[in-house]
Amino acid sequence: xxxxxxxxxxxxxWHESITEVYVILSGRGRLRTPDGEREVGxxxxxxxxxxxxxxxxxxxxxxxxxxxxDVDTTSDPDVAHYPDSGKTGLIVGGVPVAxxxxxxxxxxxxxxxxx
Length: 115
Known about the structure:
This protein is mainly beta. It has a single domain (2-104), classed as Jelly Rolls (Sandwich). The protein has no helices and eleven strands. It has strands spanning 2-3, 14-15, 20-26, 29-33, 36-40, 45-48, 57-59, 66-72, 78-82, 87-92, 95-101. The mean pLDDT is 94. Residues 1-71 form the Cupin type-2 domain. InterPro entries: Cupin_2 (IPR013096), GPI/OXD (IPR051610), RmlC-like_jellyroll (IPR014710), RmlC_Cupin_sf (IPR011051).
């Protein structure tokens, strides 16, 4: 994976079932987690567990491309939560297919007559 200077790989998010591991190859960046922000650089290995405690965003705040290997456990489909924007998304086969605002979520039985 590559992140150009001044950009983030993804918005701040966490996964229901996926553990992500980042191995930083080159460049420098800032990793945001629920514990705050910290600098990362070549040789750093970051483990991001599923659930809110594993929320993360990797941002390239350096002047060169930040290169890293992203190794994930497999869970397809994947459900990802975006706390900054209040949305949840469904990702199937690595492709985002459905996102909704959490405030607009409906009850499990909404629209299900006789259930």
